[in-house]
Design goal:
The chain has 108 residues and is mainly alpha-helical. The chain contains 4 helices and 2 strands; from the N terminus they run ββαααα. Strand 1 and strand 2 form a beta hairpin. The protein starts with a strand and ends with a helix.
């Protein structure tokens, strides 16, 4: 059934022999394995939070300006830009009609 594996951190699976070697190196250097796991997890959580939507929590691409799930701006500037655009469209019946027509065409 394949080589036994041990969960190291953040879902990374490596063969037991490699895990044992890594542990030996950590021990020789005086590094606590739990410190490495904690630091890696902290870095992972920070990276996820940096790209999470403040409105719905979905993780987005690092270069995204708007949430792929709810459309909310991922930073204050993007959200303000979206709100200004929506105000502009809602105050202009012609722009609103164009937007609705385009949305219907995309749906079809």
């Amino acid at each position: 059934m394949g080589e036994p594996v041990e969960l190291i951190h953040l879902g990374a699976r490596v063969p037991v022999w490699m895990s044992n070697e890594i542990s030996k190196i950590f021990n020789a250097l005086g590094i606590d394995k739990s410190d490495v796991i904690r630091d890696a997890l902290k870095s992972y959580i920070e990276a996820v939070n940096a790209h999470s939507c403040p409105n719905c929590g979905v993780v987005n691409d690092s270069d995204a300006k708007f949430c792929k799930a709810c459309g909310h701006g991922l930073d204050g500037e993007s959200q303000k830009e979206l709100e200004n655009l929506l105000k502009d469209i809602s105050n202009d019946p012609k722009k609103l009609a164009i937007l609705l027509r385009n949305a219907r065409e995309l749906k079809e």
